[in-house]
Design brief:
4-stranded antiparallel β-sheet, mainly beta, 26 strands, 346 residues, disordered N terminus, 3 helices, 10% helix, globular
């Protein structure tokens, strides 16, 4: 009798679990329509995805498509898009507006994708982020010996006065060498009037600047070095040889390619709700480490998130976003050829 009661209770529990709707954290959720996403944002209870010159808006509640808009062109609701452009299109947020960067143009939409206005910018080769009547631009920046590097430039409102805040070691115009793995940079470096830049390829370091481009403080962390595997160079060369964008320059790439001994400590970073989230190159299978810190760099926790495979030559940020202490990642399922949202709670 006792055994029968136990079996009955277990059966009822199993039936109850089967009949209840799945919690959104239990399984990855497929998104319709997406095939080649380049940027992924989560904010204001919505998901925003950039693919080529089109922006998709999904509901975070049920993951259903709300709206898609945008196309390549010269009109006020169109974007100057070229797939092989030196600086890609990007999307970000500014004062409850969705901001779209395309060459020499900033286009503002409301959070539902309705067009508001556009601004013609006097700089063609930078991704721009407005703040406090200024702009911080990520892109081609002059260095020594007439060499051009990836860097951060602070512009006044008229774009005529500018100041170099940080110059990376990655040369972008007729490079004499290309050093991989890349140090990727934050695509929304402004948070509450300060500029946050991961400034080192060798150390776990984030420099914090004020709105005038003066350094306020530095976040540094002791972090163990992760060696680049011995087959990495061959993987890069194979990628270049098959890439429609790079394969014609294969011999040149092969000649100037340099491989770091260690991966950069910071693969990507985001700031959300007064916390800094850092993706590193530490892995557990297909999962990547994510470190949560306060705004002074004090560690608050670690987890592992699923991300797409590593791209050797891309300055686009990773396809993940932090919102209300959840880490959302957009990952391609190659078996059923769909893109799925994975969610990790911190």
């Amino acid at each position: 009798m006792k055994k029968s009661l136990i079996l009955l209770v277990v059966s009822m529990l199993l039936m109850t679990n089967f009949l209840l709707p799945l919690d959104k954290n239990s399984l990855p959720v497929s998104l319709e329509d997406i095939s080649q996403p380049s940027m992924f944002l989560v904010n204001y209870d919505k998901i925003y995805i950039l693919e080529n010159a089109t922006i998709y808006i999904y509901s975070l509640k049920d993951f259903k498509l709300i709206k898609k808009f945008g196309k390549a062109g010269e009109g006020p609701r169109e974007f100057k898009y070229r797939k092989d452009a030196p600086m890609p299109m990007s999307i970000s947020f500014y004062k409850n507006r969705l901001l779209v960067n395309s060459p020499m143009k900033l286009t503002y939409f409301d959070l539902h994708g309705n067009y508001k206005r556009e601004l013609r910018a006097k700089t063609i080769d930078r991704i721009l982020f407005p703040f406090d009547n200024k702009y911080i631009g990520i892109g081609s920046t002059s260095g020594t010996d007439n060499r051009i590097f990836m860097g951060f430039t602070l512009f006044e409102n008229d774009f005529n006065t500018k100041k170099t805040v940080f110059l990376s070691d990655f040369e972008v115009n007729n490079p004499r060498k290309i050093t991989l793995p890349l140090t990727n940079f934050f695509y929304k470096p402004i948070y509450k009037g300060k500029i946050y830049i991961n400034t080192s390829s060798d150390e776990f370091m984030i420099n914090v600047y004020d709105k005038e481009g003066k350094q306020n403080y530095v976040i540094k962390k002791q972090y163990p070095k992760i060696a680049v595997h011995t087959n990495y160079k061959n993987e890069v060369l194979e990628f270049i040889s098959k890439s429609p964008k790079f394969k014609n320059g294969y011999e040149y790439f092969k000649k100037i390619l340099k491989i770091r001994k260690y991966f950069p400590p910071i693969r990507d970073l985001q700031i959300s709700d007064d916390f800094i989230y850092v993706i590193t190159f530490k892995r557990e299978g297909k999962l990547w480490e994510c470190i949560k810190m306060d705004m002074k760099g004090n560690e608050k926790g670690r987890t592992f998130v699923k991300l797409n495979s590593y791209k050797h030559l891309s300055f686009y940020p990773l396809l993940y976003a932090v919102y209300k202490e959840n880490v959302y990642s957009l990952v391609e399922d190659e078996e059923d050829e769909t893109w799925k949202i994975h969610i990790v709670k911190f």
